[in-house]
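Q: Two folds, back to back.
A: First:
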Amino acid sequence: MTWSSSEVGVLARAVSHAPSVHGTQPWALAAHAEEAELYERFEVMLPRHDPSGRDRTISCGAALTNLELAVRALGWATEVALFPQAGRPDLLARVRAAGRKETTAAEVERYAAIFRRHSHREPFGLHPISRGVLRALSEVPQDVSVQARVIDPRTESPPLAELFGYAAGVLRADRAYQRELAAWSRGPRDQTLPWAGLVRADTHVPDTVTLTERLMREGILLLLTPGDGRRDHLLAGAVMQQIWLAAITRRLVASVLTQPLQLREVRAGLIERLRLAGYPQLFLRVGSPVTTPGHQVRTGLGGERPRQAPGRF
């Protein structure tokens, strides 16, 4: 079996719609014989925003989920090998078409959701999603090593608000960070925590009480991994995208927060104060879109006007 040019196009289109840090698309796709290989582009660097490259590898994990779904949408079973070649750290995954297999209705739904996904960097609708829905989404991950932990709004919003507020203050005052953010980010300038996660020099950061109240109205999942290596980051990104696509099939919207976790003291504070049994990799906000009369839901990637461009988180 050899991929046809149209099949390669399907794979490439799906991968290109994965969310990535600042829309950098830090991956490369190679298709040959019955295999598709996903590479990480180490030259895509954000020294202040993503100094360790964790967000970059998480982005590649999201692309891997899209790649697998595209292969399934073409009617092939998949066999996935992570970091399959010693001495090639840039080769993240090899996805092999392992014989014909009928695509399920759920897979068709999630594949279609790839092209409807966008980052909802705004308040959600007035009616928060139920704890039951959040729990159901937390059970979506196909890799049991990644835990999707539902944040308890009553008991865990106060420590989150304190840590997010601290992170916002540090990043707002970091001039090098602000220069890098201005170079890469093209979203609306009125973003404020907790809806956006990104903090500009002129961002108004709510006080802890107000921020706590906002967080209590949010549906938030925290993704944890047992380790903190590149494999963990890749799997966290893959699971993030699995949950995000499942949320879209429920007519929900979502966005990712990773920036506060770039500060070691914030990450350590989360582990201690939330008594986490693992390494926090990202927050996924999930909720209903605003559908008030006369309101037009934005469908652009990352909150900006709709465009044909790579996804962002």
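A: Second:
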Amino acid sequence: MLIISGHQPTYLPWLGLFHKFSLCDKFVFMDTVQYLDGDWNNRNKIKTSQSPLYLTVPIDKKKSNFNNLNEIYIHGYLNKDSRDFWQKKHWKSILINYSKAPYFKEFSDELENMYVNKIWKKLSELCWYQLNFFLKILKLNNIEIIKMSEFRFEGRKDDLVLNHCKKLKGNAVVFGKHGKDYVNIEKFNKEKILVYFQNFKHPTYKQNYQGFEENLSILDLLLNHGSEKSIEIIKKDNITIDQLKKSNDWVNYKQINQ
């Protein structure tokens, strides 16, 4: 069995994305799909002593093509003052809220370099860098990643994912939980491709400050628990790829195996 999954570029991704990533053999970095205004392409949350804080990458609305994530430009990337404003502001927010976290020092140099020393022109470039950075830390970097911008795929929504499977020789696919809203299972039945909708159970773990907040950036977990413990926490009470491959939890398992 060869499992395909994928996701659009996401800034400082949440835990569920890395669980989804851990369930596949090949992952498609969907950097040519439509930009989703108000979604998570260019923002995510970290924890503060008061309430979750959104860190948002500013988008250049005049220069960007919103039908293609690979053509979303970051506002002010040519202007040092504008660039310093958002990049250094994000780094300062991380520094203020996590400098006392147990594993902050382990990752602080690389994070500072990401925000202070690099110039980010396109959102997809920033998200690609961050994804690979976090995958390396979580030891999930052995999974093959295919950039849509470097491969000829066709279709939209479920047809696009079906095309991923066919061209990458996959016979199973993992969607996020919202895939139920748009996937036509019959299309996959005809191609004998198993379908699974992720059911991520968000773990509870020790965080800075009082109370517990769900759905924060992976940064929160990593800086509080380190790399090895973080991947254990993500997988805890959630299905693993080995379990998935042996299970009949695929929504069309009976139709394909009858």
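Q: And?
A: DSSP finds nine helices and seven strands in the chain.
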